[in-house]
Amino acid sequence: MDAPQSARLASAAARERTPVLRARKLSVHYGSRRELRRGHGHVAVDGLSFDIAAGETVGLVGESGCGKSSLARVLAGLQQPRQGYLAIQGQTMQSARDWRQARRCVQMVFQDPAASLDPRMRVRSLLEEPLRALRPEWDAAERAAKIDESLRAVGLSVEHGDRHAHRLSGGQAQRVAIARAIIVAPDLLICDEPLSALDVSVQAQIINLLREIQQQTGMALLLITHDLAVVRALCDRVYVMYLGSFMEQGRADDVLARPAHPYTRALLSCVPRLEAGETSPILLEGELPDPKNRPSGCVFRTRCPMVDDICARSVPDWHRQPHGGYSACHFAAHQASPMTARAMR
Ligand SMILES: Nc1ncnc2c1ncn2[C@@H]1O[C@H](COP(=O)(O)OP(=O)(O)OP(=O)(O)O)[C@@H](O)[C@H]1O
Ligand code: SF4
Ligand SMILES: [Mg+2]
Q1: Residue 335 scores a pLDDT above 50
Q2: Pairing state of beta strands 326-327 and 319-320?
Q3: Of 236, 237, 289, 339, which has the most beta carbons under 10 Å away?
Q4: Is residue 330 classed as helix, strand or coil in its secondary structure?
Q5: Whose atoms come closest to the Cα of 319: which ligand?
């Protein structure tokens, strides 16, 4: 093999290894400037680190208010993190200019399709907008062909392109929102509760649609949802989040079949159809603590049925689990290797 060829192969291999998204110690705080300066802000996301590989589907679950949308907005460049490092396709995202260059790579679909589309616009114009912004080199005929292709890809007819957004049903509007996101061929699609505003039969259609699109395009998908059955149906890996921190992570099938963290077990116990043999839900006492006064040590300790003295004194490290994933609990059985644990913090 000649030198240029081996250099080309090495760089192709390096590209393959580069995750679509790499986050390190990402934090999101809310509050007035004065509060943020004094460190009295409201901690929505607390130093999270993770990667998403090309073509992977990653689920993010956790109860309302735990910081899922705040994290998603930072990953999509819609909000600045307070601290931390974020790279998209190996490029560090620091400035608005970095995001302009990476805009095509990451697209987002929101919870309420009706609210995310301008009701006065025709579907065709809604789909043309991102093409004009992100594919300025395309002419009108290329844009029209791509719009027709995208409508068909999301199961709509070309005639839907002439409708105003306010004349679409919820399911059709969410299909248009998905078409608008995938029309620029993103490397990562972030879907923040894409099903929760839809009725159950439409939810199933949208799940199938996301699965098909992903299989055809090979894009990575970050799926934020309350529905653990959806995670099981679609996701390769899952992160379980509580009060701005990850509690457990691993392969979705394994984590949902053998949850190790008390919080994941409580979440799962409330979904009887997923838990063979489990009949009574583990009811967590109390509300999510005030993010301005996060508990010391393990943030879950004020509601954990297994809490012990050590839980208030020290933040649990990641511990490797028999399911191959990791749990951040002092009482998880197998200690992660120090190197792996460091890399995941
Ligand atoms: N713009 C904001 N200003 C101040 N606080 C905010 C803002 N957005 C979110 N928060 C707070 O940050 C925390 C996390 O909110 P976030 O919307 O990220 O949670 P979530 O997990 O997406 O919840 P849900 O499942 O209800 O959508 C909450 O306590 C919320 O009140
Ligand atoms: S570290 Fe303690 S409080 Fe946290 S999940 Fe484990 S047992 Fe519960
Ligand atoms: Mg949210």
Answers
A1: no
A2: antiparallel
A3: 237
A4: coil
A5: 2
- Cβ of 64 closer than 6 Å to ligand 1, yes or no, is yes
Give the torsion sign (CA, 116, 118, 124, 130).
Answer: negative
Each residue of 60-91: pLDDT tens digit?
Answer: 999 999 999 999 999 999 999 999 999 999 99
Catalogue all structural domains in the chain, each as residue range(s) with its CATH number: 53-61+68-81+94-238 (3.40.50.300), 244-345 (no CATH)
100: tokens are 């302009």
CA 68 / ligand 3 centre spacing (Å): 5
Instruction: Report the alpha-carbon distance of residue 299 to residue 310 in Å, rounded.
Output: 12
Ligand 2 center to 315 CA (angstroms): 9
Distance CA 32, CA 204 (A): 42
Over the stretch 129-173, which tens digit does the pLDDT of each residue have? 999 999 999 999 999 999 999 999 999 999 999 999 999 999 999
Locate 40 and state its tokens.
């009295």
